[in-house]
């Protein structure tokens, strides 16, 4: 079996609630590991072991572990009896292909072991030292050999691979992400995975000849993101007819903001159904006309729950770097027509007057134009990167929501 040691950091700060977060992390690791094949997970106080069948490649295992929020880092380990001669043998094997400088870091978790941690490190270092190949450097070594001595066994490894860190998905509640086909909103959603949030996705699409291309693009983005949490739903909401209704009432300079206000009204119904505690957007201050502080205030005015914008102070280069890191960048840069760009003024309003847009929207028969969007919404489910189903979402406007939808 391939054996891995998994470590976590932020969870350790949770005091009396720590076990709650640990249980969710173990559950998420198990759900992810099951997609690869036969495995075994063991949780012992300060460490998590995962064993995988030898038929599974280490590359696939490590790619999977790097996506699980809550994991600080992990290592492929070798175990042996807690006996110095056995430890020497394994240490020599692990370092046989190394050259340059090294250091041994030992930790005696089993306090009845005869040698203390510094002595273990010195003895193991002496055992693996090879003149002209491996030399000791305690300050800035090229390689480290880690030795953890427990009563039942000793763990040895030479490498730590960074994980996402943060909190395990599902430990902080659920959010609804208003995902577009661009670069920003997928990265914003990924940021909230790391804060322990389970994310449901909603995409608003227009009706045009290239609709299938846009749909496939958004599905690919959400499919990629679904590998970061055990189960994912995407709501595809038709928006074209509603936009045409807006055009009859709202001046072109204000339409972008009005479109987005309408999206939040519709999204509130999805949020209610999914029991989400807020919304995620990919907004960054000043990036486009709809993201000035005045226009963001006008847009968020209709949101019934908190709007979280993790990228609000980031520049585009930072966001693009993370998009490449999580695997969404190449899909995001495929050209597409954003439904929010439908019949806009080339010079949209930079500072919408909130009272003015409320008065204009008061003329729109909100419930009548929103109802077809909701009733024709489709839901698509993914499980760890695999499509599960696609069907009509079967949503109706909840009783009592009509007043919320009106300006």
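^ Assign residues to that structure.
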């Amino acid at each position: 079996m391939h054996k891995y040691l998994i470590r976590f950091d932020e969870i350790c700060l949770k005091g009396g609630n720590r076990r709650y977060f640990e249980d969710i992390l173990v559950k998420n690791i198990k759900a992810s590991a099951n997609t690869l094949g036969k495995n075994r997970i063991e949780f012992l106080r300060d460490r998590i072991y995962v064993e995988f069948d030898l038929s599974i490649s280490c590359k696939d295992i490590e790619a999977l572990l790097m996506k699980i929020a809550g994991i600080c880092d992990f290592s492929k380990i070798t175990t042996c009896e807690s006996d110095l001669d056995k430890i020497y043998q394994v240490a020599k094997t692990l370092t046989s292909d190394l050259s340059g400088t090294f250091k041994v870091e030992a930790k005696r978790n089993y306090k009845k072991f005869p040698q203390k941690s510094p002595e273990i490190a010195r003895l193991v270092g002496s055992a693996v030292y090879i003149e002209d190949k491996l030399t000791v450097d305690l300050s800035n070594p090229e390689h480290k050999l880690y030795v953890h001595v427990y009563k039942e066994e000793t763990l040895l490894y030479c490498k730590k691979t960074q994980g996402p860190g943060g909190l395990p998905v599902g430990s902080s509640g659920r959010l609804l992400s208003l995902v577009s086909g661009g670069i920003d909103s997928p990265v914003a959603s990924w940021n909230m995975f790391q804060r322990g949030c389970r994310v449901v996705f909603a995409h608003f699409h227009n009706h045009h000849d290239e609709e299938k291309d846009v749909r496939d693009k958004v599905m690919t983005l959400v499919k990629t993101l679904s590998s970061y949490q055990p189960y994912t739903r995407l709501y595809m909401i038709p928006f074209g007819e509603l936009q045409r209704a807006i055009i009859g009432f709202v001046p072109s300079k204000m339409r972008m903001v009005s479109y987005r206000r309408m999206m939040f009204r519709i999204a509130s119904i999805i949020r209610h159904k999914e029991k989400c505690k807020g919304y995620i957007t990919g907004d960054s201050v000043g990036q486009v006309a709809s993201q000035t502080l005045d226009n963001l205030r006008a847009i968020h005015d209709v949101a019934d729950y908190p709007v979280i914008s993790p990228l609000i102070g980031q520049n585009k280069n930072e966001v693009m770097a993370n998009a490449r890191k999580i695997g969404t960048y190449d899909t995001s840069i495929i050209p597409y027509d954003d439904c929010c760009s439908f019949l806009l003024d080339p010079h949209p309003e930079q500072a919408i007057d909130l009272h003015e847009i409320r008065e204009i929207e008061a003329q729109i028969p909100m419930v009548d134009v929103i109802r077809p969007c909701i009733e024709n919404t489709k839901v698509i489910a993914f499980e760890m990167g695999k499509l599960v189903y696609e069907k009509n979402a079967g949503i109706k406007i909840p009783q009592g929501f009509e007043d919320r939808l009106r300006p």
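Residues 255-274 form the longest helix (20 residues).
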